[in-house]
UniProtKB/TrEMBL annotation:
Any one GO molecular function term: alkaline phosphatase activity
A Pfam family: Alk_phosphatase
Residues that bind Mg(2+): D34, T128, E253
Organism ancestry: Bacteria, Pseudomonadati, Bacteroidota, Bacteroidia, Bacteroidales
Cofactor(s) needed: Mg(2+); Zn(2+)
Cofactor note: Binds 1 Mg(2+) ion. Binds 2 Zn(2+) ions.
Active site: S75
Binding sites annotated in the UniProt record for Zn(2+): D34, D258, H262, D300, H301
Family: Belongs to the alkaline phosphatase family.
Leader peptide range in chain numbering: 1-19
InterPro entries: Alkaline_phosphatase, Alkaline_phosphatase_core_sf
Protein name: Alkaline phosphatase
Keywords, comma-separated and alphabetical: Magnesium, Metal-binding, Phosphoprotein, Signal, Zinc
Amino acid sequence: MRRNIFLFLLIALTMASCAERRPDVKNVIFLIGDGMGFGAVSSLLLTDDSTTAFEMSPVIGLSESCSANNYVTDSPAGGTALACGERTLNGYVGVDVNGRPMKSILKKAQEMGKSSGIVVNTVLTEATPADFYASVLSRSESYKIAEHFVESGVDVAIGAGLEVFVERPDSLDLTKTLEEKGYDVYTDKDSAFGSQSDKFVAILPMEDVHRRNVPDSLIEKRAEAKLYLEQAVEKAINVLENKSKNGFFLMIESAIIDGYGHSNDSDGMVEEMLDFDRTVKQLVDYVNTHDNTLLVVTADHETGGTAVAYKEHQVGKKVPLTLSFSTKGHTGTVVPIFAYGEGAGYFGRVMKNVEIPRTMELLMKESE
């Protein structure tokens, strides 16, 4: 509580001391690049000769990614810090160090009358998205997480992972429960992206949400999967911006950066960051044409100890980039924050991971 009061006073004093107007943050887009550290960002900057979305960022900060009990966080604890504004123990999802449920920034946005959404290129019940709506002691409690998802109150959600909703030991079909709650439920991409519904959940096959799940031989299918995140984000925003006059909160996770870090896959990491950049550019374009919108891009942690390897090339004739890795696990190094749009200036500093959602909350409250 004291930390929240201090942060509120810091923002208030900063605004009072600046000549610019007070921020009016109506919409918040929170994009988490799972495992995206400075090595991953470097792989993009040194590969793409065009201007990347990161270079468009007017504000850059740093986030300390520790958990409550380790310098190196896992995804459940790292996501909990970003979702709930409190550090917890490694392994915990949306609960504090004593196992008590916490309220996420998504839930707080709902209480402010905002529409809300989740878009991921992994399963909807994976640790990071689950941190925004579930409260369990382990990411392995996927059936329970699915039950919490049904009660999440989000207006739109797009991802994968149908099995834990329908192939359950209790024989429940949670897609039917979602329908009873007024959702349209889709299990194929065409129906989801063509939907006219203002309240829907799309639980798609894994091969639709990321190219890594598609065999190399299926070239056209892989090309379609590369576009999934951009298309899903566009669809979600179209639904959310028309849903509430009070604005919206959208959580997005690009999850597979982490996977390439774990597998120490240099080529995969480079390709993934190029794909990630397209989604960020799309969001930057949206922010630039929609007042009162804040976009924050960061990571829950760094994966792989990823760095740029020594590789000589001729002046003006660069060779393909090679990355080096120091581990197949996570590291405790700080991760970048890129902020755009309304209120972005409050993220241009060294922050603890928990301060990111706290700052979002206070900026949204300022606009009420």
